[in-house]
Each structure stands twice: as C-alpha cells, then as structure tokens.
Amino acid sequence: MKKLILTIIALIMIITGSAMIIHGQEITTDSSKIEITTGENYISVVENYNIDAKSSQTISFWIQESPTDLSILIDGIEIEYYTTLPIGDNRYFCNISGLNITTYTNIQVSYLLDIDTTKFEKTLQYDTNSMSIKFDGTEIYTGANLKSDSFLNVTLQKSIKGENIESIPIWIYAIIVILLLLLLISFISKSKKQKTTKTKEVIGASEEFLTTKKSLLMETLKEIEKKHRDKQISDDTYHKLREQYKQQAVETMKKLEDTKSEIK
What average pLDDT score do residues 48-75 get? Predict the structure, then answer.
C-alpha cells in the first residue's frame, strides 16, 4: 500500500514538473495551416506547423475529443506521443529533446473525427503568428497574432453532395427567376399591343422592367452586404457576388437612362 502511494505521488510530481517546463518554455508557432476534408464515413484533419522550439524538451498539441488514427510527424518521421491526467485534457505531448527543431521544421498532426462533427475546436498551446483553416478546399478561418490558450470554435458547414460550400445562395436564384418572369411578362405585353404604338409601348415596358431590375439588384447588394456582416458568407464569396451584381446594377441604370431619353 505504501509503495502504491509513493508511486502515485511520483507520477503526480512528474506530470506537474512537465507542465511547469512546458509553460516555462518560450515556444512560438510561426504558422499553422489546418486542412479539413470530408470523407465517406469520417472527417479528416491535417494540421501543419512551423514552430520555434530550439531550446525546448517537449511540445504539446490540443486535439478535440474522440480522434482516431492520430499520427504526429516531424519532418516525415513519426514521433511517439503521450497524454497526461486527467483524461479528457485533450493535450498530447512529444519529447523533442533529441531533435533539432527550427522554424523550417515541418510538424504534421493528422487524425480522423466522426462524420457528424459540426464544429472544429482548437485551444492554442503557444502564441501563433498566423493561422488558417480550410474545409473541403474553402478557407473558413484566418487569424494572426493569436495568444496561447486562445480557444477557436469554427462551424463546419456541410455541403450537399455535388455542390460547393460557397455555391450561390438560393435567394439569388429566386431573384433571377423573378427577373425572368418579368422579362416574360414584358414580352407577352409587347406582343399584344397594336403595331402602330408598339415601339413606344415597348420602350415604356422596358423602362418599367429596367426600373424593377434596378430595385432588385440594389436589394440583392444590400442582402449580400448583410450576410457578409453576419459572417454567413466568406470574404471571397462576398467580393465576387458584390462585383457581379454591382456591375449588373451599373449597366441596368445606364440602359434605364438611355430608355428615358428615347421616350423624351
């Protein structure tokens, strides 16, 4: 019994000592790039790091719960890892005392998560100069000058099979359908008019159509702006959609001015 108690005390001292060493080390992460991809029955995570840990004996990585097939590679060589008490601490440690770790050393941590995982979580172990996260090829997070112990919680938006995550939102398709219906109504209205007044009426119908189209495009631009502020669409998607519909709005307003001139 006495021997068991001494063993437990020694284990606690070792763990406590390791934690003190780790917090005392001046380790920084120069860059962190995380690639998350959806498999058939799993979500694959590959984390690549460039870490400045020249004088350190141990480095640690925080991985969210329930990973499988965990592998830690340093310059392509698989490194053994261990965990500490209590279970559920989510930290994995590697002894690097025999390795020459520089900012040019590539450290790769890979593992699998359950296919139903909806959020990617990460607690930074060290100050990080730059960090990016991609999900199925689309960048969903970027950050700079992040402090150690910062907690990240990023939503993983599942894409429908065969579609891209950044596909055009359905409300934009609805606006396009409305525009097509207005064009069809304008054409039917035009075909029913008498031949002698057709030109003037067509111009009037075109003006009404262009006015409606202008209003819809302006509303679309406002909606895109709102969804970008609410972080419902990424920066890339926002800029692409904004430029696309802004150009259409400018062209529509020009045609509208030309139509009004013809009526006069």
Answer: 87
Whether residue 143 is found in the same domain as residue 208: no
Q: Are 158 and 43 in contact (CB under 8 A)?
A: no
Residue 110's DSSP bridge partners are 46, 71
Q: Are 131 and 146 in contact (CB under 8 A)?
A: yes
> Which structural domain range is residue 103 located in?
20-155
CATH code, 126:
2.60.40.1730
Q: Is residue 6 part of a domain?
A: no
- Indicate whether 230 pLDDT > 80: yes
Ramachandran area for residue 88 (φ above 0: left; ψ -120 to 50: alpha; else beta): left
Answer whether residue 102 is part of any domain. yes
CA distance 249 to 236: 20
d(CA 8, CA 102): 36
Angle at 132 between CA 47 and CA 104, to 5 degrees: 60
Residues 150, 198, single domain; the answer is no
Q: Is residue 8 part of a domain?
A: no
Rounded distance between C-alpha atoms, residue 29 and residue 151, angstroms: 15
Compute how many other C-beta atoms are within 10 angstroms of the C-beta atom of residue 199. 12
The CA-atom distances, in angstroms, between 3 and each of 9, 15, 85, 104 are 10, 18, 20, 46
pLDDT in tens, 84-116: 655 557 889 888 887 877 777 889 999 999 999
Do residues 89 and 26 both lie within one domain? Answer: yes
Q: Count H helices, E strands: the chain?
A: 4, 11
Q: Contact, 74 vs 118, CB < 8 A?
A: no
Our count of domains for the chain comes to: 2
| Continuous segment of H or E residues that includes residue 149 | none
- Integer Rg of the chain from CA: 29
